[in-house]
Amino acid sequence: MPIVRKTFNDGQNIVTICSGHITRDEVFDHMNWLIDNHGTHIKDSYHQLLDALSVTKLDLTEDDVRRVSQFNSIYGQNRGDIQTAIVAVDAGARKLAQLHKNISRAANKEVQIFSTIEQAINWLKIPMEHVNKTKELLRD
Question: Beta strands 110-114 and 47-59: pairing type?
Answer without folding.
Answer: unpaired
